[in-house]
Amino acid sequence: MLDKNAVGRTSPPTLNEVEKGAIRRFAEALGDFNPVYYDEEYARAAGYPTVVAPPTFPACFHSSADLRELLGVTVKSLLHTEQTFEYERPILAGDRIFVATRVADVQERTGPAGRMDVAVLEDEGRDEEGALVFRSRRTLVVRSSREP
Amino acid sequence: MPTRKLYFEAVRLGDEVPPLTKGPVDRVQLARYAGASGDFNPVHVDDVHARSLGMPSVYAPGMLVMGMLGQLLSDWARGAQPRRFSVRFSKTVWPGDTLTARGRVMERWGEAGKYFAEVDLWVENQKGELVLRGAALVQLFFSADDENRQRAGQPPLLVPAPKESLRQPPPKPPEVRLPPAPAAAPAKKAASAARKAPPKKSARK
Question: Most exposed among A22, A123, B7, B204, judged by the fewest C-beta atoms under 10 Å?
Answer without folding.
Answer: B204
